[in-house]
Structures are given as C-alpha cells and as structure tokens.
Amino acid sequence: MNDTVRTSSGSAAPRLTSLSHGGGCGCKIAPGVLSALLARSTPLTAAFPNLLVGTETADDAAVYKLNDEQAIVATTDFFMPIVDDPYDFGRIAATNALSDVYAMGGKPILALALVGMPINVLPHDVIAQVLRGGEDVCAAAGIPVAGGHSIDSVEPIYGLAALGVVHPSRVKRNASARAGDVLVLGKPLGVGVLSAALKKDLLDATGYQAMVAAATMLNRPGAALAELDDVHAMTDVTGFGLLGHTLEIARGASLTARVRYADLPWLPGVEAFVDQGVFTGASGRNWASYGEGVTLAPSLPESARTLLTDPQTSGGLLVACAPERVDDVLALFHQDGFADARVIGELDEGPARVEVV
Question: Where's the active site on this chain (predicted)?
Fold first, then answer.
C-alpha cells in the first residue's frame, strides 16, 4: 500500500488514514468501557431543572431550556480520518457532528471547529481542505462555522461543537419510545465495513462514492420529524452500530425491540466484504460491550453479528413512531432524498433487549 498521495498543489503528503490508529466513529470508546467511566458521574437534571437532557440516558446531545418556547441543543463530535481525501474527511466529520442536533429534533444554528493536526507532517493545503469541507457542509445546513479551537496533535482530528434550537415540548429523546411503536431507519448501513475496505485498498470508486454520499447526507428530516406528535423517540446510528443504538432505545423505554434482518438496507458490497473478513475491530468491541442484551435468530447468516455491530460514521436516524404515522415519517425522509429509508422492526412489551429475526 502506498502511504503517500499528491495534494492539489502537487506536493506529496501522507495518506490521512495512515496517520491514525482508527477512523470515524470506529474511534469511539467501546460502550461498555464508556459506561464504566461514567458510572460515578452525578446525575445533573435534578440539580439543574432547566437541563431537559443530560447524561442520564446516553442521548445524542444536551438540551437546556431557555424559556417556554426555546431550548438549546448542544453537542460535540470529532474523530480521526475515515477517508484519505481531506475535503471528504471534513465533510463527513461535520455532517456527523450536526446529526446529533437533528437527532434531538433540533435545527442547527451555529458551529465551532475542533481541529487537531500534525502541523509538521501534513501540508497546510491539506489541512485547509479539511476545514473547507466542514465549512461547506455547515453552509449547506444554513449555519456558520463561527470560530473554534486548534492544537498541534500527533494524529489528525477534526469535528465540530454544534448548537441548535428546539421547542422544549418537541425534544425527541432516545428513551421515550412506546410499546407498539414501529422502527424506521433513514440510511443504509455498512460505512465501517467500507472504510475498512478502503484502508486495505479494496474499495473501488463506486463503493467509495456510495460511502461518502451516505456519510455526507445531512439528517435534516429530524427537525421536521420533531413536529409530529406520534414520533416518540429518535437517535442516530453511529459508532455503537445498529444493535447498540437500538438497544439504547429499548433500554430507555424498558421494551423489547424486534429487528427484521431481511428488511435492513445495506450499502453496496458490504455483505461480500464481511464474508471476505474485511471489517473493523470496533465490531467485536461493540458486541463484547452489549451482546448480552441481544438475541440473534439461528437462521441469520454467519456475518450478521459483524454487520449489525458495524460502527457507522454519520449514520441514519432511527425513529420510533406510532404505526399510524409511518407513512408520514417515510414521506418526510423520501422528500429529502433518503431513498433507502424504511421500516426495520417494532417495539413491544417485554424485557429491555433487542431480538433480531
């Protein structure tokens, strides 16, 4: 594998993915380890009554009520490169960060850049392209990158601190689903697998374009979904994989989530790559952290566990809504270009776990 590329100015530069030990949301600390680290944290919502959403339910962002009509949604997300193209890296990281605002039902209003770069290793024009990618995504979302912070670091890191607004009564949490709700997924799965294939020089141009197209699609339907009363819970599928984030919804509502494997959307080539042994190490860490809360039907393919735990970078919204509202939810996705949005399961009374059939 060639670990250098040519920049737009013609100079040689290291491949971005060669400078990091992990990439995208696969860099996340494993959920089991993170839970242990946060176990001694003091719950905050009781001490701060205007804090509508804190750390108690592992939700996507904090929400703070300003008045009866407005609440601030605050989040931050950053990671190491998932791709080698610096502009695409910036776009993916920014889209992923803004997703947490949309997942709470909010509308972004402002972002700050978080930048850590090996200044003496990467040409400055490469770093500038990363920043431009993030700025272009924020411009598409209708918001400015109004500042930020930068450091000289060993590995390249980029992301955003993002702020949004939402009506306090329209906040969509990951812990408020109801028995009988239907689960709708907005984007196809498999970004982690394709990123692993890219790092091994196995991903062709078509696969790369599909991965980047999915990972740079802003989850804007989240703000419109928040206006629907029968949308009860929402999150986005990122580093813990589909199983991990579905389990958060199930545990938050003390319900059993049933996912139909045959109904899941996949990015092209993902299943074949896993069959060839191409996937990220984060899949195994995810399963080790929460596998006891999941039942996989014996009839599923051998690759199912790896695919279902695949860490998604800038993945789709996962929505729990009343059955009679499904057509409206799908219509909001489809009219915003989310052609792969579909029903993947439901929530029922029972122990807080995920069953995949």
Answer: 25
Instruction: For residue 27, indicate whether it is catalytic.
Output: no
3-class DSSP assignment, residue 116: strand
68 annotated as belonging to a binding site for a ligand: no
Q: What does pTM read for this prediction?
A: 0.90
Rounded distance, CA 316 to CA 2, Å? 32
**Residue 18 assigned as binding residue:** no
DSSP for 165-188? EE-GGG---SS---TTPEEEE-S-
Task: Please write the tens of the pLDDT for every residue from 78-123.
Answer: 999 999 999 999 999 999 999 999 999 999 999 999 999 999 999 9
Angle, CA 135 vertex, CA 215 and CA 168 arms, to 5°: 75
Do the annotations mark residue 60 as ligand-binding?
yes
Catalytic residue among 25, 27, 138, 321: 25
Contact 1, 258 (CB under 8 A): no
* CA-closest candidate to residue 294, choices 335, 318, 321, 261: 261
